[in-house]
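Class, carefully examine what follows:
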Amino acid sequence: MERALTVLHVSLHHPTRDLDAFAKVPAQLQHDTSPLLVGRGPDAHLRLLLPHLSRRHLSLEPYREEGSALLTFCLKALSRKGCVWVNGLTLRFLEQVPLSVVNRVAFSGIQMVVRVEGGTSLEAFACCFHLSPSPLIHRPQAEETDEWESTSQEQPPPRPRL
């Protein structure tokens, strides 16, 4: 009886639409439970040929939580120069964050959405890659306000009398 693999559905977008950058991206990849490397180096499993990308920029790392029969994943930043944005958090070198079912990731101009579809196999997982012609993530810029200044000048409410 064959055990179902956990599948990572990975959508990728880069604003330059440089198809050469994605020339080494396979449509599908089956991987053991070692970390899946993303970068421009020859040892990267997901190889993206962009000059500002580190040879080993990040990794998707499968693990099994104690008492669980399912693979879960964390994303680890491996670049000493760049950072990785994951679901609103900024990761620096060797910082990691557990992945949820749907994850929004940005690094070196690349937008990536990783959707985790659980399976029962603990020996391997699969990745399906999709190149998106349109942006995947909308991150509005923080707006500057003087809200703090106006609230700090207000008088505190009167204390109730006992």
